[in-house]
Amino acid sequence: MISLYLPERTWLHGIPAGWKLIALALVSLTVAPFDNPSLMAGLVAAVLALYASLGRAALAQIALLRPLWPLFLILLALHWWRGDVLLGAVVILRILAMVLLANAVTMTTRMDAMMDAVEPLLRPLALFGVAPRAVALAVAMMIRFVPLLFALWEALNESWRARTGRRGGWRLLAPFCIQTLRMSHHTAEALAARGGAPRGERR
After folding, report:
1. pLDDT tens for each residue of 41-58
2. pLDDT in tens, 180-198
């Protein structure tokens, strides 16, 4: 998880985590009803410009989206079969923009800052005996793990291609699940070594 965080401070690091999460939610809700290809292409171009403003390290993380290409091809094929390829392209552009924006938030936001931003929303859970800080940790880790899982899939795919000269595809599912479980186990051990998930309001 830490390797996906940009250590070199950018202008986006200076924006509070709460504002970045609110902006991400607003953009997602705003673009959802629109099916205009030009609008979606403009949104993707704006997101790429955002990455360019963050530097080469941020641009390099766009490569993590390679595992999404098979999904995009399936979506495009389904829409082609239904006779609406243009709508399929709009859906793909929307997903691409949202995933890139979410990754931009995670790579410029520290874990503790993200927990501090999410925790106030979860405070009503304390009425039911659930520790808001522990749930905030779970939410922050889930957000952090998404790009990490993309990176893991890409690493497995590159290893398979180096041995066979072809893409791994469905053959990577078993090692991907094993590596994901191992990663979960190591994360749980690290948490246990630090005293487990926090149950108080603060660290």
Report:
1. 999 999 999 999 998 888
2. 888 777 777 777 776 666 5
Task: From residue 193, give the alpha-carbon distance in Å to each of 134, 148, 196.
Answer: 16, 22, 7
Integer Cα distance of 13 and 97 in angstroms? 20
Q: What is the pTM of this model?
A: 0.69
Mean pLDDT of the chain: 80
pLDDT higher than threshold 90 for residue 130: no
Confidence label for 128 from pLDDT (cuts 50, 70 and 90): confident
Dihedrals phi, psi of 108, to nearest 5 degrees:
-120, 15
Structure tokens at 57: 């390290």
The runs of H, that is alpha helices, within the chain are: 17-31, 37-54, 56-60, 69-81, 85-106, 111-122, 132-164, 173-193
Residue carrying the six token digits 């997101």: 47
Backbone φ and ψ for 8, nearest 5 degrees, come out as -75, 120
| Identity of the residue numbered 88 | G
Structure tokens at 112: 């503790």
Residue in 114, 110, 109, 105 with CA at minimum distance from that of residue 47: 105
- For residue 48, what pLDDT is reported? 93
Query: For residue 72, which of 31, 44, 52 has the smallest C-alpha distance?
Result: 44
84 within 8 A of 35, measured Cβ to Cβ: no
